[in-house]
Design goal:
Blueprint: H1 6-9, H2 18-52, H3 55-70, H4 73-93, H5 105-130, H6 134-142, H7 147-178, H8 189-200, H9 203-232
């Protein structure tokens, strides 16, 4: 087998894997971002249930966060993929379909990341809400401000301001979880590195490249969240 230099392997020439690795890195960001958004929507609802719900609703919300934070993320991915495929197969059998029907791997991965991320984002939102000054909320109520207007102008901006650091940490978790989706066949960064390593028999070269790409994504993400935090705290005097 012809041996190529490291830069030839990760480059964009005829023997390079650079374009495939960058496409896989984009897939990693895409599936993590979609899962993160799903988690934000579910997490906001779970947080609301913990704060304002009655006892059964709060019990459901607490159970959700306890279970999803307590079981391995890989198990959640398997449950979504094989459980969803089994349900899809049962429906398909009613129309004459036979055999295994697999769910789209991107959708499965995004949903799995989303439900796990929601458990963490719910706690972030709840903690941020508890940091909002109660006096501002009471003042808005005393002025007869409608609940939706109070939420839009007072609660939501301050909750987001306090939540940004925690949400940044949850985003980093979502990026790491995206690597687990390779087990169901999605060609993201880790899976593409495995394919390239197997084809060239140069595993170290591709795995160290994947590590560097993950670090680049993490660094860019950290900068974005830090700037968002600084913008959210603009005009706020710090102790």
């Amino acid at each position: 087998m012809q041996q190529f230099s490291y830069f030839e392997l990760i480059g964009f020439g005829p023997n390079g894997w650079g374009d495939a690795l960058l496409l896989a890195a984009a897939m990693t960001v895409a599936v993590a971002f979609c899962g993160y958004l799903i988690g934000a929507m579910i997490g906001a609802l779970i947080s609301w249930a913990k704060i304002t719900g009655n006892r059964p609703i709060r019990f459901f919300a607490e159970t959700y966060t306890t279970i999803l934070r307590g079981i391995p993320d890989l198990l959640v991915i398997y449950l979504f993929y094989f459980g969803g495929s089994a349900a899809l197969g049962a429906v398909g059998s009613l129309f004459g379909a036979k055999g295994f029907i697999g769910l789209p791997t991107f959708l499965t991965g995004a949903m799995a990341i989303g439900v796990v991320s929601a458990a963490y984002q719910a706690e972030v939102f709840r903690g941020a809400f508890n940091s909002v000054a109660r006096g501002e909320i009471e003042a808005a109520k005393s002025m007869g401000m409608p609940k939706f207007l109070m939420f839009r102008r007072i609660i939501a901006p301050q909750v987001l301001r306090f939540a940004i650091p925690g949400l940044g940490n949850v985003w980093q978790l979502a990026l790491k979880e995206s690597a687990l989706i390779s087990v169901i066949g999605l060609v993201e960064l880790l899976r593409q590195s495995q394919i390239a390593a197997g084809s060239t028999r140069r595993p170290f070269d591709f795995y160290i490249t994947a590590a560097m790409l993950y670090l680049v994504i993490t660094l860019i993400s950290t900068i974005i969240f830090k700037r968002a935090e600084e913008k959210a705290r603009r005009g706020i005097r710090r102790a």
